[in-house]
Design goal:
Layout (H helix, E strand, L loop, with lengths): L4 H4 L8 H19 L3 E7 L7 E5 L14 H13 L7 E4 L5 E10 L5 E10 L4 H5 L6 H7 L9 H17 L9 H11 L8 H9 L3 H18 L1
Antiparallel strand pairs: 1-2, 1-5, 3-4, 4-5
Helix pairs in contact: 6-7, 7-9, 8-9
């Protein structure tokens, strides 16, 4: 039998656990936005199992709202955790009240004490037409042109730096207001604005690729910071 006192005793929770749980609220919004309206994301608080739903996005899938209770399957997962210590059970299939097939996944959230304080749950509606589901992952041509954001997926910091440098050079070359003489400074400023110099080896790599000294890079960085500060 699950010991409900292990999960409902507020005194067991550290003061920062509310903030810790609230961090998952933002993750819930992000995941739901990424996957689409056919994905319900729920954050349960174990302070009170009768009103455990502390955050829910796309609750239309199950009809739940903030303040709804934990499910029987949620209780089962807590019991399994007590017995096995497994925080991330395998995904499973279930049905909502309308009989729609859902694929679901749940992970247990631990607090500062190392004890469970909540559950993070995903429910994806598989009963919708496939075209409706996939449409959230396939933007039309206009959206591709207007809303896509370039991002380089690199395996090391050197790739990140060199990729950013390549893009900065292209951006500067496409700007007719930047003269050839001022191009290196303009590239350095763009890299500074894009936080690339947060990488320790960035100064050396950028100087090497631009064919200038590290001292020149430092000078451009100082001048760029002064310009940025004066604008603020």
């Amino acid at each position: 039998m699950i010991n409900l006192n292990d999960f409902t005793n507020v005194e067991c929770l550290f003061e920062d656990d509310d903030d810790r749980l609230a961090n998952y609220f933002r993750i819930a919004e992000t995941v739901a936005d990424l996957i689409g309206p056919h994905c319900e994301v729920v954050v349960h608080s174990l302070k009170n199992l009768e009103t455990s739903v502390a955050k829910i996005v796309n609750g239309h899938m199950t009809g739940r709202t903030i303040g709804s209770p934990i499910t029987d399957l949620g209780l089962k997962m807590l019991r399994v955790y007590q017995e096995t210590g497994n925080l991330t059970p395998k995904a499973y299939f279930t049905h909502n009240a309308e009989g729609q097939l859902l694929k679901s996944a749940t992970t247990i959230i631990l607090g500062a004490s190392g004890k469970p304080i909540g559950l993070f749950c995903l429910n994806i509606n598989l009963s919708l037409p496939f075209s409706e589901i996939i449409s959230t992952f396939t933007p039309d041509a206009a959206e591709v042109a207007e809303k896509t954001t370039p991002e380089r997926f690199s395996t090391n910091s050197t790739e990140v730096i060199l990729g950013a440098l390549e893009q900065a050079i292209k951006d500067v070359e496409a700007d007719p207001s930047v003269t050839q003489k001022a191009s290196n400074k303009a590239v350095t400023k763009l890299l500074l604005e894009r936080d690339i110099f947060e990488f320790k080896e960035a100064t050396v790599l950028v100087a090497e690729k631009l064919g200038i000294t590290r001292h020149a890079i430092y000078k451009y960085i100082r001048e760029s910071k002064t310009q940025i500060t004066s604008k603020e």
